[in-house]
Amino acid sequence: MGTLSGTTQLNSPFGDQRQQGFHWLTFAPFVEEEFLHTYARETAGRARLLVGLALATVLVLIGASLAQPGGLGFMVAFEVLLVVPTLLGTVYVSMLPGRHRLYFFLLASSLLVLGLMINSVVTRASLHGMSFYFSSTVAWIFIVWVTCGLPFRHAAVATLLISGTYVWGLFNWNIDSTERFFAIAALGFANLIGAVCCYQLEHALRRSFLESKVLSELAERDGLTGLYNRRSYDQHLHRLWRQSRREHKQLTLMLIDIDNFKAYNDLYGHQAGDDALKRVAAVISQAANRPLDFVARFGGEEFALVLYGPDTEYGRELPETLRVAVVDLKIPHQRSATGPYLTVSIGVANVMPDTDRSLEGAIQMADEALYQAKEEGRNRTVVRDSPNASVQTGRFRGEQQRSA
Questions:
Q1: Share above pLDDT 70 across residues of the chain, in percent, rounded to a whole number
Q2: How far is CA 261 from the centre of its chain?
Q3: How far apart, in whole angstroms, are the C-alpha atoms of residue 353 and residue 93?
Q4: Which of 110, 261, 341, 342 could cross-link 301 (Cys pair, CB 3.0–4.6 Å)?
């Protein structure tokens, strides 16, 4: 990696996604997970109400069927063994945070099995000359597309299967050809309108999601350097830690402290100190050049850099490159004990998510490495790898993370 320099980059996966745009209702993996989590949280309430009403209706139908002689038939078995467990599972998972993918799968499955039940009733009614029941299938198609908050792809699969099984029934039961033609045309028209509405709605929601995230991130920035502030650092780091566990990717945590900065401020004044902070921040921010990497200012002269998923060698080489890049700025510092220019000390923790190390322990590893760099003379880097490193002193930064 070459010398790092330039202006501060406000690196953000949401800002990058907004700038790049999106096609086929798909974001980059990290942004997609955040959107689906938000979308599930915002739509689960009305879906839970609909599924709960459907569950109550199915239980009443089961009870009515069992009360009749010979009521234990195929449909009752289908309802008891498949429909009821699927609906119950959907209601339960909809209340679990972080299970949005399973929730959407179960919701689509619930709407599918309910649609199959409706198809059965409508087909039997058509065989007895009551073709007007077909409007129930059309109405259900619209409900699946636009009412329950299903993502477009889930809704498309569910409606395709519901429509396909109904068309199969039309041919299997030799429904009148004129009625078949009308039903197929109506289903195609209903699905076309529903798909367009669902697509446009989700596209608008995704665009609004990105806009709100970008605006929110602007409030999470440090006013002087443009980097993330401490509060947003905590939020992003917790989110990345969870994702690293899911994807088994390494996290590299760097804590960077400007050496003898109080003496610099005392000698050159606070305006010069602010200018120095911005120049150092610009150098550090150049290292966060991937969507999930980010830099934060802790406050004062301290910075944190988090890299998502680098290999071990990258996590070892970059800190030294950063240290040299700050020296190469050649910011004069006559009262520095490390040389004629402004320097930094860097503590690094390379952590794999499949270890027993907690997030607080990982932060403490980096904190210990930073203090070791200071105690050994400053203007140096100390790197610790998990699970080889052990925390020994219990310094304050891990405690701060726990209380944040």
A1: 89
A2: 38
A3: 26
A4: 261
